């Protein structure tokens, strides 16, 4: 009975682990869209700055010294957008490396909270049959089966110790 329960739980874990490559792929699509949009915004800012005779740093410094709070706030927001664009590009580069485990690790190592939450909100579970999903499903099955077995062995030993102590 216990063996069948372990296998059933491990199959559920395998199905859940199999979702990781699909989620990473959908996140990567949203990441690319965010990069495209931020790149457009930063490019427009750079063009406006050049037309006014400034480079990016000079324009941000000028805006940061402005008497108007609105202009100073816009300088802060533009600096944040520029920094976020750099972070997202770095993550996109890491996620474009070959291998499903590499992509999922790159996601886990530095995901963008906003993009990840929007991806999760629209994510639909499926059973993708690809090499990547099969690898993750196998890893999930084996890891959960091993953890369940270790827990059962540990609980069995604890029960035997308590029984012998009484």
Automatic annotation (TrEMBL):
Keyword Signal attributed: yes
Name this protein carries in UniProt: DUF2937 domain-containing protein
Record lineage: Bacteria, Pseudomonadati, Pseudomonadota, Alphaproteobacteria, Hyphomicrobiales
Pfam families referenced in this protein's UniProt entry, alphabetically: DUF2937 (PF11157)
Keyword set, alphabetical order: Membrane, Signal, Transmembrane, Transmembrane helix
UniProt organism field: Bradyrhizobium ivorense
Signal peptide: 1-20
InterPro entries: DUF2937
Transmembrane regions: 134-156
């Amino acid at each position: 009975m216990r063996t069948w329960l372990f296998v059933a739980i491990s199959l559920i874990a395998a199905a859940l682990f199999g979702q990781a490559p699909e989620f990473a792929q959908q996140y990567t699509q949203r990441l690319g869209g965010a990069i495209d949009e931020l790149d457009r915004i930063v490019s427009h800012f750079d063009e406006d700055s050049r037309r006014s005779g400034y480079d990016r740093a000079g324009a941000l410094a000028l805006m940061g010294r402005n008497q108007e709070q609105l202009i100073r706030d816009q300088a802060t927001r533009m600096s944040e957008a520029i920094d976020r664009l750099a972070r997202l590009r770095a993550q996109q580069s890491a996620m474009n490396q070959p291998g499903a485990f590499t992509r999922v690790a790159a996601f886990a190592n530095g995901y963008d909270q906003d993009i990840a939450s929007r991806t999760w909100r629209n994510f639909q579970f499926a059973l993708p049959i690809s090499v990547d999903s099969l690898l993750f499903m196998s890893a999930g099955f084996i890891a959960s089966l091993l953890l369940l077995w270790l827990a059962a062995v540990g609980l069995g030993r604890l029960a035997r110790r308590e029984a012998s102590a009484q």
